[in-house]
Amino acid sequence: GKICDITVKTETGCQCLVCVENSNGAEVSGCILESATNILCKGTFWCDTNNKNFVMRNTTSICRTTGVGGIWVRERFADVVSDGITIDGCTIIHQGLDEAIGIWGWNGTVLNVVVRNTTIDQQNHEDSTANTNNLLLTCGMDANCKNVLFDNCTINSIYTCQTIIKESPRENASGIIGINDNIVFRNCTINAK
Predict the structure, then answer these.
(1) CA angle in degrees (0–180, nearest 5) for 113-64-92
(2) Is 130 a residue whose pLDDT tops 90?
(3) Cα–Cα 20 to 30 A to 10, which of 38, 68, 106, 186?
(4) Rounded-to-integer distance, Cα 153 and Cα 157, Å
(5) SS3 per-residue string spanning the chain
(6) Distance CA 87, CA 116 (A)
(7) Tell me, what's the pLDDT at 41?
């Protein structure tokens, strides 16, 4: 299925604005996904479980929440693989805490993810106490994450960020160190404070 040329906004909070699960060949194109300031929203978009050949194209994600997350590409279930995920020509504006993009296995496996021709723009949050972020991009985390390519992307971090790119498992998780493989940044520009 396709979600094309729509605007999804929340002023009151939610788990996630748009979530795609159990898809093959699904597409989100030409959309605006926007969460309001100072609400709890765990993300603008989740490519959540059992997705194959998914494409997000020419879409703007604006995450202003004080909660966690922005765009998550993940596999929620053990023994399930999400494969062939593409984010192309998108603008990701992130003003909240946690990552702008998280690509992680969680319980299962995520393979062959491409983020191409995309701008990831970390901006000041209206709440000045939130102007420190622990990370901006994550790959790996709790389980298998292999073959991730960031190609021709611009990554802007204008305030203090402990880690711009984190390729490691979550602290205190067991048995997962070394399972992340082939995470590549090619022709990318990173502007950091």
Answers:
(1) 30
(2) no
(3) 106
(4) 13
(5) CEEECCEEEECCCECCCEEEECCECCEEECCEEEECCCCCECCCEEEEECCEEEEEECCEEEECCCCCCCEEEECCCCCCEEEEEEEECCEEEECCCCCCEEEECCCCEEEEEEEECCEEEECCCCCHHHCCECCCEEEECCCEEEEEEEECCEEEECCCECCCEEEECCCCCCCCCCCCEEEEEECCEEEEC
(6) 6
(7) 67
